[in-house]
Specification:
Chain A: GO terms for molecular function: rRNA binding; structural constituent of ribosome. The complex is a heterodimer of chains A (259) and B (129). Chain A is mainly β and 259 residues long. Helix content of chain A is 9%, strand content 34%. The longest helix of chain B is centred in the N-terminal third of the chain and has 14 residues. The chains are: A mainly beta (259), B mainly beta (129).
Chain lengths: 259, 129
């Protein structure tokens, strides 16, 4: 997932592959065909984020209202492990590690990479692509109290609950056909396009397939409580995955405010 | 996982009311419910028999049933909510069910419950914030 060696791409090739293509590995040039570069950071974030673990849901009372909330517990970690800069790697980003584990749980290259930053062995690494990395340095621990406060909005990304291979009815809310009267279209998806012209199926037609177990991002989630003492964040509403799922929490991207 | 549950409990504790009287099924209680009426806040009492308890920590609710002008009225109150300002247990009853839904099918004298003459907890009143 995370390529630990510095990205060996030239600046020009990087600019060709923008944020949209950032996840896909690509070869940079013919001379470097053997070396695949994976940029592990995704689209630009409004600021440095942190990791959290979904602890579960409950509801709390606020101003006389009962609100559904998700409690996000913070495990040991959230330490800056690397800073990438425009001049060196071609883009500014902050790499953050999460969940401190025993030495033997990670590979030797990973261990050395973390040791360079003076950070303990950590299971998860992720880059947050940001405008500038000022005020941050490798080995620095991120503090939730200084990053988020009550009433802030955050973007939360995580892996959704996997539902397996599902038909169109469950996956896309298609209508079903008649169950009786000789119907041969009970839970089928129906037509997938025109006939001889164009003589093919258009790309992106909704069809049965894997549902869930994919990265999803929920935008503009309200922070209801920052509990530094218990190491938890209380966010309004549901979040991806089940309890125990690792989530990435960044300041919300709001057009006109910070984007 | 166990640790996560502890964190959730600690956070729930922050929002919960302390030292609430123990409400039991079959109790005849009077709840003070703060309501907003034409811009004013006032407390309206609701009196009735507790026919069900849903014990769920912070989300604990009581179902209170009373007969109003010959019509059965049931309301469900989350007791930790700020709108419940006082709890007064007036009477306790000897019941052998966790849910007294059978009272819904009874009228008049048949809805009486056998009284239990226990020591009743004192009236609980929310601290005015």
């Amino acid at each position: 997932m995370v390529m630990l060696a510095p990205v060996q791409a030239s600046l020009s090739s990087l600019s060709l592959h923008g944020a949209g293509a950032a996840l896909r590995p690509f070869t940079t040039s013919s001379s470097m065909r053997q070396r695949k570069c994976t940029i592990s950071c995704r689209s630009m974030e409004a600021g440095v984020g942190i990791f959290g673990t979904k602890a579960g849901m409950t509801s709390i009372y606020k101003d006389g209202n009962m609100l559904p909330v998700t409690v996000v517990a913070l495990e040991p970690g959230n330490i800056v492990t690397q800073l990438k800069s425009e001049g060196r790697e071609g883009y500014n980003s902050v790499q953050v590690g999460y969940r401190v584990v025993p030495d033997r749980k990670i590979t030797k290259p990973e261990r050395n990479h973390l040791a360079k930053a003076g950070a303990p062995p950590m299971k998860f690494l992720r880059e947050f692509k940001v405008k500038d990395t000022q005020g941050l340095e490798p080995g620095q621990a991120l503090n939730i109290a200084s990053m988020f406060k009550e009433g802030d909005f955050v973007d939360v990304a995580g892996t959704s609950i996997g539902k397996g291979f599902q038909g169109c009815i469950k996956k896309y809310n298609f209508h079903r056909g008649a169950m009786t009267h000789g119907s041969k279209s009970k839970r089928e998806h129906g037509s997938i396009g025109p006939g001889t012209t164009p003589g093919r199926v258009f790309k992106g037609v909704k069809m049965p397939g894997q549902m869930g177990n994919e990265r999803v991002k929920i935008r503009k989630v309200e922070v209801l409580l920052v509990d530094e003492e218990n190491g938890a964040l209380v966010l309004k509403g549901g979040l991806p995955g089940k309890a125990g799922n690792v989530l990435e929490i960044c300041p919300a991207k709001i057009v006109g405010v910070n984007v | 996982m166990n640790n996560f549950q502890n964190i959730i409990k600690k956070i729930e504790y922050k929002f919960s009311k302390n030292q609430l009287p123990e409400i039991k099924v079959g109790d005849f209680i009077r709840l003070g419910i703060s309501i907003q009426e034409s811009g004013k806040q006032r407390v309206q009492p609701f009196e009735g028999t507790v026919i069900a308890l849903h014990k769920a920590g912070l989300n604990t609710t009581v179902t209170v049933r009373k007969i109003l002008q010959g019509i059965g009225v049931e309301r469900v109150f989350p007791i930790h909510a700020s709108c419940v300002t006082s709890i007064h247990i007036l009477r306790r009853s000897q019941v052998s069910r966790a849910k007294l839904y059978y009272l819904r099918n009874r009228i008049g004298k048949a809805t009486r419950l056998k009284e239990k003459f226990d020591k009743l907890p004192p009236i609980w009143v929310a601290k005015s914030s």
